[in-house]
């Protein structure tokens, strides 16, 4: 990733402070900006701080502490001065910007009459997660995901920040373009949070393969059925299963003959089995492969691959 | 002979001057119509398309004639690219220089150039509503200008010809 792409996340007046961090764009994973608190960056999984001159320092006491106005400016800039256009995302606590970077937000929530989140004000905490496209991230997985030239339904599992989306993106690309394990097939992606393809003005900014169709910013449940009807995919991919409705829609898609690629938060197979909405689909064998990811294990981050009964194909 | 030529020259000059004034009035009507149509487009892109302001500028650049098209294209490039310049600042600069030579009144110009300063609503209805206010102002001006344009043009032409006659008589 280019230095300019990181700098473009910041308004003109505060770019000087981020130049040093942006030089390490390839290793930069996260930027945390909290009102009145030290500016924090995560580089190569190590925490550092940024001082007022933009130097990267080890001690939080030396770090710059942003004012609330800086966060407001930053938010306006990230939303391209069109906060209304991101109202749905802000309501969910995050927004995705050009390049697929995800900005987590926290502040004071505004509720509607029925107690649902209507909007957020006084946004004082930003967590910028820098998206990296790692071509070849799924190379080590590929031999285990194909059977007689056809990709198997696969669920990628890891805790937040474990590299699921990066892995899924490369998996989609390779399945779409074809590998020595199987020919390329039509893949449809429901990119609810614009993180997989990082679409901008409807065009995927990340390489997701030549046979991939992307439905951007669409809720998973509606998106999956829409794509099955309209794009006739052989493989359907979604990120972050998080509810019974998501899983039910996946089951329907699986019942239509589509193979599925999906991700879910979790620390172990046992942990996801304990989620009410996952137990049934795991018993039914909707997924033929479960891939456990752990970023601490190095480049591929594969901690284990399991078959539909939960027996390990490989385990580290 | 020279007097006759002079007479016609003065008359033609004054008629031309009048014609140019009437033409400016017609131009004003045309620009007011374009501006209020554009604000209507903006409003619907916000309310229904939920496009960001720079994206809307790109759409406006594709939909409108040269002078506005180039201006909106520049706004899009400066705000959607990697420059990080504030949208309201760029909007004011670019539209300010685009509208400067046009035959619009100062308050009409300001309604458009200062619009972006007031576009920080958190939801689309508020944002579209604010644009709707500017649109309504310009539409009112357009309707009024269109109504009076024909009469004013006739009046300007008549006054210019009469002025020409008077000037010619006085001078010759």
Protein described:
- The complex is a heterodimer of chains A (316) and B (172).
- Chain A is α/β, with parallel strands linked by helices.
- Helix content of chain A is 28%, strand content 30%.
- Chain A folds into two domains: 3-129, 2-Layer Sandwich (Beta-Lactamase); 142-315, P-loop containing nucleotide triphosphate hydrolases (Rossmann fold, 3-Layer(aba) Sandwich).
- Chain A is globular and about 60 Å long.
- Chain B has 172 residues and is mostly helical.
- Chain B has one domain (20-171).
- Chain B contains six helices and no strands.
- The longest helix of chain B has 48 residues, at 2-49.
- The radius of gyration of chain B is 21 Å and the shape is elongated.
- Chain B starts with a helix and ends with a helix.
- Chains A and B meet through α1 of A and α2 and α6 of B.
Mean pLDDT over the residues of chain A? 89
What does the overall shape of chain A look like? globular
Distance between the termini of chain B: 12 Å
Strand content of chain B: under 5%
What structural class is derived from the secondary structure elements of chain A?
A: alpha/beta
Secondary structure class of chain B reads: mainly alpha
* Major sheet size, sense and barrel closure of chain A: 8 strands, mixed
Query: Architecture of the largest domain in chain A, CATH level 2?
Result: 3-Layer(aba) Sandwich
Tally the beta strands of chain B: 0
Number-wise, the strands of chain A total 19
* Percent of residues in helices of chain A: 25-40%
